[in-house]
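Why do we care about 3D structure at all? Because function follows from shape, and shape follows, mostly, from sequence. That is the central idea of this module. The next example makes it concrete: a single protein chain, its amino acid sequence, and then its structure expressed as tokens.
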Amino acid sequence: MNHLQTFQVFPAIPKQLAFLEVLSRNIWWCWNYDAVELFRRISPRLWDEAGRNPIVFSTYISQKRLNELANDDSFLAHLKRVKDRYKIMISAQGKFGSDKISDISSPFGEQDTIAYFSMEFGLHESIPLFAGGLGILAGDHLKAASDTGLPLTGVGLLYRQGYFRQYLDQEGWQQEEYPEADFFNLPMRKARDRSGKPVRISLTGPDGEIHADVWQIKVGRITLYLMDTNTVENSPHIRDITSRLYAGEEKLRLAQEMLLGIGGMRALAAMNIRPLICHMNEGHCSFASLERLAQVMKECNADLRAAMEIIPRTTLFTTHTPVAAGHDEFPADMVRPFLFPLEDRLGVRADEILSWGQYAGAGPDSPLSMFVLGVRMAQHCNGVSRLHGQVARRMWSHVWPEVPEEEVPITHVTNGVHIPSWISHENALLFDRYIGPEWYLQPSSPDVLQRIDEIYDEELWRAHEMSRSRLIRTCRKFMLKQYGRRNAPKSIMKDAESVLEQDVLTIGFSRRFATYKRAHLLLYDPERLEAMIRSDTHPVQFVFAGKAHPRDNEGKELIQQVIRFARKAGMRRRVVFVEDYDIHMARHLVHGTDVWLNVPRRPLEACGTSGMKAAINGVLNVSILDGWWCEGYSKERGWRIGNGEEYDDEAYQDAVESQALYNILENDVIPCFYDRKNGDVPSRWISMMKASMKMGMKDFCSQRMVQEYEKRFYLPAARQFHMLTANDGEEAKKLAAQLDRLRELWSDIRIELPVKEPDGPFRVGEDFRVTAAVYLGELRPDEVEVELYYGGLKSVDSLEAGQAERMTMTESSTSSSSASSDTGTGSDTGKNGNYLYACTINCNYSGRYGFTARVTPRGDNRIRFTPGFICWA
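And the structure:
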């Protein structure tokens, strides 16, 4: 049958229950456990069968059950409680849970927003728009922005098939399925412009026009806009642009990123949303800056030079990937056709636009790097943990030639997790009772942290045991489903009914199965591991979960190794691998395991937020000192494997660190867990649980994260936007003119080797004076900074932990200057560009030091770190 027309029938909701439909259309419910329980109490079995999707769930409920609920006073009281809280959230003005900024000082007006671009958003398991940690982080960012009242708007893509569903064959080899998502069962609707028309955008690609519909999802007080190319106007190939997350074909991947960036900005413009700031969550979003350039040029009547001063100063770029090969690059010939339509609007050729994303000195046909394009269009750039910031500065130092590594303009904001989304129901009830019903609005406040200590040990332990029990029930259900799909024999099905035990130390290893995550480290000495698992007095059990990338055969082999070990005699009931790891399973694991194991190859874990989610639930981390654990570790709240060493020999590293892991489990973790005096609760373990919870709530919650982004980046960038766009971009035009002047005159600068007086050596407590003769040509002293750069001597031509000391101009002429003679100028007046600079250095510590001098432009990071604007002595 062809040309079938469709229609959908929903139940007739009694008037008393009308709010249930409103609630189902805003995913605020998914991080409010009272709202989750409201749906669940209608029918726990159907709620689970519906995948915890309230829209699907509504079609499962009989009319009879709805009529019963409409007359159930207890249910109606519960519904009213949730409705009242929802109304407060929706109607709230300003901020929840953060220090409220006065209307006078805030640069955000009623219609102003921050556009947050991301390739994926992990909001809930029923909304398949995510693959892993990057997406979960983005989802938590939106939720925290809603809680704190931050004016933020999300921009992403709507995938018909999302990321793959995982299942294993008889041999334990990962297989992938890509089921189609039913958009009518998702809590979204078509976005509309101010006239009420559905929003549709388009951009020109090499195969013709790409049309996309725009949908919206409400995330509390935040709106997330998603673009979808599955429209009848598009060819089948173009429809496939938004079919799967992270398309494997390079050309399709490029089209996705063009649609996300350029299409995303056009979608916002179509709804008259003009962001003050753009936050690009990883390099996939970098093309947004190109479209934003064109929009700002038109709106501010500015030329490209001026717009190029506005866009970087109001753009934030967050990088998550500590491996250069993990950043997208596209062939120049593939990118050019997308750039041709921008030539007239930007007033430059496509090759010039392309060069903004190419490495310095590269030819016109070299690939376009999405990272390079992103950072060149963003004055503000950050990694996602302290260690990752260091790694990123080292990895990308070549983008800023001659700038010392420690000064490369990449900082860090350590990730955080959204506490209400990841706290267990049992712990949330404890917090309600001991702290107060609004604890989740300020999870890092000193009062909240102090009251965690007041929770009775027995109550916290019983709550955790309930979470562990629920994890075990869930694993058994999943294992029965997995074995049933493979037509396993009755004996194996019987075993699956009783996998895992309630009172046994339970260790979770759940993450993406990439080789650097080293799932094999635990299996390095199988006999030693089996002895721990089989112990009669202090046994251990393991829950594994995670997906390998469809094209990562090495990752799939790691899964297969785990499966083979789990199938060994005596292991099946205490080692399980749960297929199709998603948010639902992750929630059970971070609630119910006792230990969260993380063994990446340092320093390849940018952050690793799953350990934070475990920590806030009192699960103790055992981890390599990588990512966030470098900041979170202390012996009072978990264990470290090694001391942060990095190795050149990976095989040797695995051998050393696997033995360290076994030692920690055998000598520290297992004895601590089973240390029960007179059958009592494990007091020392519970003390560590509380310390872990306080650490997670205080330092690693997403509310802290978004407030840090707000204070350090969003507020300054918003003020910059207003200043730079006022009066037709007058200030931006001045900055552009200054940059032109620097480009024209910078090559004339010369600086002599600095001279110290006296010659030394020196003793601790003494100081000495350093002078340097500088020739600035036509540049003025107020346009530059002259600095002494010094630090411990690392080698004959490099310094360790170098630091800059500003030098002061003491004379506007020098009696003899090779700097001036080199340029053929006189040396008698400052008008001829000759100056003498000086500073004093204090000798605070003994050691061998080196120093030199340099000239940089005076101004913000956009000017100071423009490549080529540095002159060393």
